[in-house]
Write a structure and sequence with these properties.
With 94 residues, this protein is an all-alpha fold. The chain contains six helices and no strands.
Length: 94
């Protein structure tokens, strides 16, 4: 997320990193879709098909970042309720 904020990666890069971080945990990969801006998808497919991509607006990026930060203590905690070690890693990732 730090690379995304610093514009060193784009949304597709974030998605690739999330899929790598949560490899072997398809429930967590699919749970992350709630944080993606409109027009982006994430799947558990092994092949790296690019998700539907549209030019995103600055407001979309801010909304995405705010959603992740605001929900990280609630929604993400529920998503990781059986994986406390991954919750700690995700908080570090943010």
């Amino acid at each position: 997320m730090k690379d995304f904020k610093a514009q060193r990666t784009d949304m597709l890069g974030v998605i690739r990193r999330i899929k790598d971080l949560f490899k072997g945990h398809p429930d967590l990969i699919l749970g992350f879709k709630d944080f993606l801006p409109k027009g982006y998808e994430i799947s558990t497919a092994v092949e790296d098909e690019p998700p539907l991509k549209k030019p995103y607006e600055f407001e979309d990026i801010l909304t995405f970042l705010n959603k992740v930060q605001c929900q990280s203590d609630d929604h993400v905690a529920k998503l990781f309720h059986q994986h406390p070690d991954l919750l700690n890693e995700f908080k570090y990732f943010l």
